[in-house]
Records
---
Amino acid sequence: MNKVQKPADLIARTSGETTERLVDCILSARLSDLDPATIQYAKTFLADSLVTGVGGVSNPGSRKVLNAAKKWDAGSTGNCRVLGRPNVSLSPHSAAMVNGFQIHCLEWDALHEPSVVIALCTPVAAILSEAQEGQEKLNDCLFALTMAVEVAVMFGAAAKGHPRFFRPSAAGVMGAAVAIGLLRGFDRDAMTRLLGLAYSQVSGTMQAHWEGSEALPMQIGIAARAALTAADLAEAGLAAPKDIVDGKFGYFALIEDGGDFDTSLQQFAKPWKITEVAHKPFPAGRATQATLTAIMDLQKEAGFTIDDVVSLTAYVPSLILLLVGRPYQPDMEGAYARLCLQCIAPMMIRHGAIDPGRFKQRYFATLQAVEDAKKVHVVLDENPDPNALAPQRIVIELENGRVLEAEIDAPFGSPSRPLNRADEIEKASLSFAAARFAAEPATVFNALDTSGEETLLTDILRLVTQPQDAEPCL
């Protein structure tokens, strides 16, 4: 009798060797490997995530998510606080969902540009819940956050094409899960299963981004919650797939259209990727930040107003066109507007800033805003890199015939043009004001600066969650 010949790919089951190498990298790292400068970066971007999450209270969608979370928690008690919301406590999973939404919903949170991963929102939301449950020390949380960013960036940087899934949630859940595993002291077996269980919950497509939907920050909340779920299941001993990176149905077969994870592994901690993270100084998609930087610089130089502008043309790489080249719509929601350069650029010229309080339909529908938008044009340049965010060339033609040009390779907030402490506090002040959160933002940064070995993350968290003199914007 002849044997049935099976396709080779049905016979061969790869062993998960790449996953094992990733786990080796994760478990070989120690808090003592982080030099003082790297720890300071972790503190800086933890603070940025916390204060940005407070501002997220001002987004109407965050109230909807909170209301849903309260229904999930009905009949149970929770002790996890929510950023910017005095007297609100939820279960760990529900708090991760709400905090994740709030940290990302204003498009104001930090990112790692080379990998196109907004790398802190998902891990921070998950870590906040874990730290409140276990009273974790701040330094351990900073190490976990640094490792989470490292792993999330590895998955993002290895990709070779345009994102199909939303990398802050897809790569973010992988990093966030690692952070929770480290805080719980997982061994090699548990960490391997944790990664498999986190991968099994990867979600969040680019369709929500494409449409400018409130579901976009929801995907961050789901990813943060999934990281906790994966850790709980791994701790309970649940089995998981192993060949999650380059298996037949692994991350770079399904989530990304191919990738080079070997190079990412070789670049582990060389340098620590949190040292390459960039602030978003303006509450709008990162793809808008180069144009906003050019406007800021050119207005200082030439002192023009929106009424002086005939046209503004942004020559951008294909990813920028994909992310923020969408047409202006007078009836758009705030989530769409934050990702629309035709809205963001004239808003910056007219007001000299991007105020999160302006992202309302009554503003977008004004004749003035509609006419301003017509002056902005987004044009594809010849950059062949499908993941490039820069450089971007901005050309502004004025009524008097003068033409202003700027090429921005490193926007304001990037590592080569970083925010200083005054800039960080100004951003935090705007965020607190948007949420009507009555606290002094400088106290958050000062508390992190003066923290010691025994400081708990909850000591810092109290400053952005405790009851205040004024009720937040609901």
---
Amino acid sequence: MRRNILVAGLIAAGILAGWCGHALTPNAAKPRAVEPRGPLPEWEQVPIRRFKEASPSVVYITTTEERSRDFFGMDVVEVPAGSGSGFIWDAEGHVVTNFHVIQGAVRAYITLSDGSRHEAAYVGGAPDKDLAVLQLAKTPAHLRPIPLGTSGDLQVGQAVLAIGNPFGLDQTLTTGVVSALGREIQSVTRRRISGVIQTDAAINPGNSGGPLLDSAGRLIGVNTAIQSPSGASAGIGFAVPVDTVNRVVPQLISRGRLERPELGFEPVAPRLVERAFGAQKGIMVGKVQRGGAADRAGLQGVGAEGRRVLPGDLIQAVNGRPVGDWDSLLDAVEAQPLGSSVALDVEREGRRLKVQLKLQAARD
């Protein structure tokens, strides 16, 4: 039995030695020839070109915050707080990003596409729109502002590209389509952001504040949020539309905040309206500020007649656009320039009225 095992082992060893010796014979195998290919098709060339054109405009943002070394100590140190993306807005070194990317930070640093790192100053923010503007402390000469598009003519199904720094992986490109339009998401102030673009281009933590581009390489939105049970991309991302960005950013640069109209009245909470007057359609005017825009327009607030509470005017539409709550009313009036007038569809004691309300800037 042992003899048989020994013979079998020798035979196996001989076979293995012969096989290995054959494999190690010099010049027995050579690298295969590369199969030549023709030029890339146009559908592949488009995103390549757009990335090369737009990536110099995309930046990586890191922030720091202050923390005490220990619970009882007064010694405060700066520690890394977070990171995100942004893009060059103009040749003066203004950078646009999401407000939540820099919220709570004491210092921000911007890394350009060439790898250079610069300290940045906070210029202004609009938390309700989740937008903020930073400015490079020193403005390099080679800055390339991102080309601007419009979100007013977007169509579901058209191609989009997202560039950002997901999980700190800088200059990452993802592609997809416009999945839906007119979505709503919640800002850091819990106010709704309306008209949001939904896309299936992969957006992950770190993409926030980066650009969403159309196939022409123009900015059409600012990547802001994802919807995912795991916190990673699930093919549902959201971007603040560029038409909103183009209205808000110039105000942040010039004033540091979003200038909005003062309507001159306080709305009544819907639950209180329903409790007092039953279900109503529209925003009920509560207290009217004397001399304010609502007062000059003739809007009537909640009043009293003896022990009977009288309902205030119900605002149901702005310039023909239905409004169902306070957020939608603010969205409608904030889309109009200050100094202009809007037409309010109002219901008063069962009668329908048209009221002209002139938009005046809120007082500081």
